[in-house]
């Protein structure tokens, strides 16, 4: 499975989206449901499912600001995902806040989490990479550095 962040025009509205590529399936899209205030002038939220299935696993998706929105997490107890994946664009200070939040999510909902961060410039900000994963016990099991890298984790 490959997840790719992109702007997406649907029904005359522009959305912050994640394209979901899976073998032998049509491309799916998750559009951000909760926008940060600086995104509102340019994008529209879309109330679509934030859950996908991959190899008999249920995955909850979040894009950047959504990790801080309690409403986005409300369904975690009923959805019981096998994995929580968040895609973000964060600088060093923002990554520390995101790491604390994802560790909280992992610990309180007892699910593994994966956070993928951008490297290089995005919207005039230097994103610091440092993507990471926590297991379902909220223990960090992997972390990348600031360079472009590939993170492979085993959730079994």
From TrEMBL:
SUPFAM superfamilies: Carbon-nitrogen hydrolase. InterPro entries: C-N_Hydrolase (IPR003010), C-N_Hydrolase_sf (IPR036526). Keywords: Hydrolase. Residues 4-153 form the CN hydrolase domain. The keyword Cell membrane does not apply. GO terms for molecular function: hydrolase activity. Pfam families: CN_hydrolase (PF00795). This is Carbon-nitrogen hydrolase. The lineage of its organism: Bacteria, Pseudomonadati, Bacteroidota, Flavobacteriia, Flavobacteriales.
């Amino acid at each position: 499975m490959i997840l790719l962040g992109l702007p997406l025009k649907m029904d005359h509205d522009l959305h912050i989206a994640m394209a979901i590529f899976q073998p032998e399936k049509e491309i799916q899209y998750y559009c951000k449901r909760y926008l940060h205030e600086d995104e509102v002038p340019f994008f529209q939220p879309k109330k679509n499912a934030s859950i996908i299935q991959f190899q008999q696993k249920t995955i909850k998706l979040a894009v950047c600001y959504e990790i801080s929105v309690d409403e986005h997490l409300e369904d975690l107890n009923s959805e019981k995902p096998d994995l929580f994946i968040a895609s973000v664009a964060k600088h060093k200070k923002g990554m520390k806040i995101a790491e604390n939040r994802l560790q909280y999510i992992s610990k309180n909902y007892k699910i593994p989490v994966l956070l993928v961060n951008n490297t290089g410039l995005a919207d005039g900000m230097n994103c610091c990479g440092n993507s990471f994963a926590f297991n379902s016990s909220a223990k960090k099991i992997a972390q990348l550095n600031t360079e472009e890298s590939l993170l492979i984790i085993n959730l079994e």
